[in-house]
Amino acid sequence: MPSLDALARLAERGVLDLVAVVTQPDRPGDRRRVTAPPVKERAQALGLPILQPPRLDPQAVAAIRGLAPTVLVWAAYGNIVPRQLIDAVRGRCVNVHASLLPRWRGAAPIAHAILAGDGETGITLMEANASLDAGPILAVERTPILPDEDAGALTDRLAEIGGNLLELELAGYLAGTLPAVPQPGEGVTWAPKLTSQDGALDFARPADELARRVRAFTPDPGAFTTVRGRRLKVIGATVAGGVPQEHGTLVARDGVPHVAAGAGWLRLDRVQPEGRAPMRGDEWLRGVRDAEGSHVPS
Questions:
Q1: Do residues 107 and 191 touch, judged by C-beta distance below 8 A?
Q2: Is residue 295 part of a domain?
Q3: What secondary structure does DSSP assign to 219-280, as a single string?
Q4: Which structural domain range is residue 247 located in?
Q5: Same domain, 33 and 103
């Protein structure tokens, strides 16, 4: 959304013309209610034509080419842009990518940066080509990853940084005055798409690693364990000290649930039981019988 707003401001200043917005189709959300992507709602408010192809197949490519674009700009689009579209604009494409390329190429760079314990991340404006996130770099802005920042909060913050950087640099790119620097061959890492099963918490792992997993998987697809056969989503957790016990042991400290990990303890600060709203860990624990000394997953 911030990138679209940046393009709209550039259009108001006469730097470019916005001919259309391409975004994902409307999809079922909570309670199976079909909702529109926020980008679509913003594009409608701006009075822009909107295309929502499920995939960029030949029919969708033909529809976009029919608009005669001269430049393509995208941010977290979710589909690979085919060579035919890139060729149609003679390679004039800008991708607002949420990592410090070449680190974390791929679909989930923000979550993987948190999982890896990176101290910083940022936005890279990249001139896109047919190779995944491997095009030359146009501009970079760095930012620290805050110790308690989850993927949702970091995504929102990087979106704002990306929109501002795009607004600052795109005019130079269009004028041919913004140099494109090839990405280095060293330091390439990959950030594949996360699945819901990737969020399972393995309490044989160290507590600091588990806390990062919770942050990386919040809000989606979610970190979780099971307690007496029922799924418990963990949406906020911190590392705590204490006497080591068998990993997976659940105890209460001052009413707050703690689980022994391979090293240290994971304090469950916020959770979401199946079929219920998110709540504090102590609120959940009060409703669980005989929790002291039990094991998770169970």
A1: yes
A2: no
A3: TTT-EEEEETTEEEEEEEEEEE------TTBEEEETTEEEEE-SBSEEEEEEEEETTS--EE
A4: 196-286
A5: yes
**Phi first, then psi: what are they for 65, rounded to 5°?**
-65, -30
Cut 0.90: pTM above it: yes
Average pLDDT over residues 110-135: 94
Q: Which of 88, 185, 98 is nearest to 136 (CA)?
A: 185
CA-based max dimension of the chain: 68
What are the backbone angles phi and psi of residue 166, rounded to the nearest 5°?
Answer: -60, -45
Q: Find the CATH number of the domain harbouring 260.
A: 3.10.25.10
> Is 210 found in the same domain as 171?
no
Regarding whether 200 and 155 lie in a shared domain, the answer is no
The count of domains in the chain is 2
As a residue count, the chain comes to 298
pLDDT band at 191 (very low <50, low <70, confident <90, very high): very high
